[in-house]
Amino acid sequence: MNKPFTPQLVYFEPKALEYPLGQELKEKFEKMDVEIRYTTSHNQVRNLPGDTDFQRYRIAKSTLVVGIRKTLKFDTSKPSAEYAIPFATGCMGHCHYCYLQTTMGSKP
Known about the structure:
The chain is of the alpha/beta class. Helix content is 22%, strand content 15%. It has three helices and five strands; from the N terminus they run βαβαβββα. It has helices at residues 20-31, 53-60, 101-104, and strands at 9-12, 35-38, 63-66, 75-76, 83-84. The strands form two sheets. A three-stranded parallel sheet has the order 2-1-3, covered by helices on one side. A two-stranded antiparallel ribbon has the order 4-5.
């Protein structure tokens, strides 16, 4: 059985805290003693810890960003003929078709 994802670092877009789920997540991660930071946009997280690109990449893989999705456009899910609503953005891999979506959501 897979262990659930537990972030080591969480960024919040301030407007996400205007929603009950945003407040609930913040309280949960505070109780877990997870480091919390803030960002102006979930699409532009800057200043990840680390001295090298490799260290920042590794930290990014254990970071959760909580924000407000502004569009809900449908994306094609190639190579299939289906469509998907992208729920996650900002992965450094920029893969068009992600095999991780069964465990981490669309385009994690």
